[in-house]
Amino acid sequence: MEYSFSNAAREMAVYGFDRVVKSHCRNCHGGCGVLVYVQGGRIAKIAGDPDCPINHGTLCSKGLASTQLVYHPDRLTYPVKRLGPKGSGRWERISWDEALDTIAGRILGYKEHFGAESVVFGYGTGRENEAAIYRIANLLGSPNVLTAGHFCYGPRIATSILTCGTNPIVDYENRPQCLLVWGNNVVISNPDCYKGEPFSVAVEAGARLIVVDPRLTRAAARADVWLPLRPGTDTALALGLAWVIIHENLYDREFVEQYTHGWEEFVQRVNEYPPDRVERITWVPAEKIREAARLFARTKPAAIQWGVAIEQQNTCADNDRILMCLMGLTGNIDVPGGQVLFRTPPIVNVGKFGAHALLTKEQAAKRLGGERFPLAGRFAIIQPKAVWDAILEEQPYPVKMLFFISSNPLITRANAREVHRALEKVDFMAVADFFMTPTAELADIVLPAATWLEMDYIGDFWKRHGRLLPRRKVVQIGECRSDHEMLNDLAHRIGQGEYWWDTFEGGLDYILKPLGLTWQEFKKMDCLRGEVRYQKYKQGGFSTPTGKFELYCTSLERMGCDPLPRFREPPESPVSTPDLYRDYPYILITGARQPGFFHTENRQVPWLRELHRDPQVEIHPEAAAREGIQEGDWVIIESPRGKVRQRARLFAGMDPRIVAAQHGWWFPEKEDPGHGWDEANINILTDNAYESMDPAMGATSIRTLLCKIYPEKQHL
C-alpha cells in the first residue's frame, strides 16, 4: 500500500520519488518498520518508519543497505542446475518448472525407496519461512527439519513453555528500572523480539544496568555493575545471584509461596552455589555477585535482556531456565516494566500452520536424535550431527536428500569439515538463497530466493511480543520467488495440493482467518496487537503441568532430565581438560556480533563489507606481547580440530586468558567455488561430539573452547 506522509511527501517532491511504500524489514530478525521510496520502478531509498511501535523510526545498517542487497549484480535471479562434480563451479540456467519437477521427483523417489525420513528440509535463521517448511515436511511424513533451533531461540521457547507457558519478553514500553543484560549486545544485534532503540531509551531514562559478558561491550561500559565471567560458567553465576537473593530475603515472598512449584528443591540446589564458590568457578568477585543480586532484586520493575550466547553451550537449557527462575524469584514475571507473557492476536499460529498434528506418531518417532535429546525432540528440533551421521554412516537410517532454504551450514555449524564431507556425499541437495554461498556451491539445484522487499507476508507472527505487521512487496527481481511461493508450488507437485493454495496469498488468508481478515484487508493496516493484560496468572495460573511457575520442572523430570538448573563445566576448559589447556592455553569465545553482518550474510554488500574488510580476532595486549603479535597481524588460531587465520585486534576489555574470534566468515569475492570457506571459518575449530552437547536440547558448545594463537608469518 502507498502512503502520503508530510515528510515523505516533501522528499517525494524534492527528490522526484514516485511513491513510498510502508513495510517491515527482515534483513535480520526483523520487526523494524520502514518507508521504501521508489523512483522509476526501482528502490531509491529506505528509511525507518517513525510511526512503527517497534523501532520508532530508527534503522540499522543492514536495513539501510537492503537496496544494495536487492540490486547486487551477483544475486541469483533464476534457477540453475549443476554441471559436473560437486564444487566444480559450473552451472546451467533452467526453468522453475524443470527445477521444481526435478526436486519433486527426487522427494517422491526417496520417499518410496527409503522412507520420507530420508528427506531432510532445513533453514537457518529463517526468513519467517519456518512454518511453511515444517508444513511441507510434516505432510510428506518427514520428521526431520534441520534448523538452528537446537542452540538458537528454540531452547528459549522450549524451556519457557515448560517453566511458565511462553517466552517472557521485556516490557520496554513501561520502562524497566533495572536491566540485567546477559550474553547479549542488543545495540548491535537487534535479536528476536528486541531492538536496540527501546533498550537505549530505557538506559538514557535512568534504568540501572547490570551486564554479564566476558567482553567490555558498549552496554558493559555503561553498566552500574559489569560481571566479566569466565566463558561458559553462566549457570553457576546465575545460581550465585539466586543464592544471594534467597539468603538475604530479597525474593518476592508472595509470588514464590503462591505461584511457584518446587521451591524447597530449588533452594536446596541453589545452596550448592554460595558466592565464594561461584567466584572460584566464574572469576567474578563474590562481592560483585552480591552487588548485582541486590541491585536486581531491590529495583522494581526489573527485566533480563538475554541473548543466544547462553544457548550455544553445553548448559543451554539450564542457562535459559535459571534466568527465568531469577525473573520469578524477584516477582518480575508478567508485570508492567518486567518480563511479560504477551499474547499474539488470534491467528493460526506457527505450530498449527506447520501441520505438526498431521505427522503420524510412527514417523515422529523416527526424528533424528529425538531419543538422545528429549527436550529438542519434543519441540520437533533435531541436532545437525545426527543428520551428518545419517548421511556419512547411514545410521540409524540413510538420509538421501537435503533441501536448505536460507541456510549456510558449511559456515554456521560446528565441525565444518564434517559438514563438508556430508554435503559432498549426500545423494541430492537443493538450496534456495540470495547468492551462491559455499553451501549452495555443493548443491545440485539452486533456487533464487526473494528478499523481504520482494514479497507479501505477515511479519513477526512467529514472535512472542504480541504484534503483527504487514510486509508489502515493493519490487520483483528477475525470477526470484519467496520461500513460501516456491514451497506452495512444490507441495502441489508431491501430492499435497489439498493442504495448500492456488497462490500463497491463500496461505496468508488462512493465517488471518481467526481474525476475520484477509491479506488484502490486513495489508491496509499498520499493525495489530494482541490483548495486553498483566499478572494473568492470578486468574488462570500458568499453562504448565502444575499450573504454576515451575522452578522444579516436572516435564523435564518426566523426560529423564535434571528438573533443576545445574552447572556443568564446558567440555573444554582449564578445569575439565587441564592437559589440553597446557597445549592450548587460551579460552576462545566466538560469535560476537558485528554491525552490518547477519551470521554469514552481507559480506558482498559494499556498504556493509566496508565496515569489516577482514575477519578479526580480539587479543588482550598482554597476550599479544607474549605471543609476538602486533595490531593488524594475520594470526593463526588453532584448536585440536584445525586452524584458521584472522587479523589481530588488540583489545584490553577482557581477561588476558581469553581471545574472541568472529564467526560466519567466507569470501564472496574469491573466485574459487568454495569462496574461501575454510580460511577464516571459526567452525573449523569447534567440536560437535555428542558428549560435549547440552543433554536436553543437543545445543552444540560453539561459544567456548580452547585454542592457541601465533603470528601467521612464523609459519609461512
Describe this structure in words.
The protein has 716 residues and is α/β, with parallel strands linked by helices. It has four domains: 6-59, Phosphorylase Kinase, domain 1; 80-153 and 349-452 and 460-465 and 478-514, 3-Layer(aba) Sandwich (Rossmann fold), CATH 3.40.50.740; 168-340 and 540-558, Dimethylsulfoxide Reductase, domain 2; 578-715, Barwin-like endoglucanases, CATH 2.40.40. Helix content is 32%, strand content 17%. The strands form seven sheets. A seven-stranded mixed sheet has the order 5-4-17-16-15-6-7, with helices on one face. It has a six-stranded mixed barrel with strand order 22-26-23-25-24-27. It has a four-stranded parallel sheet with strand order 11-10-9-13. Strand 6 (119-123), helix 5 and strand 7 (145-146) form a beta-alpha-beta unit. Helix 10 runs antiparallel to helix 13 (275-282) and helix 13 (275-282) crosses helix 14 (286-298). It is globular. The N and C termini lie far apart (59 Å). The relative contact order is 0.15.
**Which percent band covers the strand fraction?**
15-25%
Distance between the termini: 59 Å
CATH topology of the largest domain: Rossmann fold
Q: What is the total domain count?
A: 4
CATH class of the largest domain: Alpha Beta
Unreliable residue runs = 1-5
Mean pLDDT: 94
CATH architecture of the largest domain: 3-Layer(aba) Sandwich
Q: Pairing-aware structural class of the strands and helices?
A: alpha/beta
Sheet with most strands: strand arrangement: 5-4-17-16-15-6-7
Tally the beta strands: 27
Please state the CA-atom Rg, rounded to the nearest Å.
Answer: 25 Å
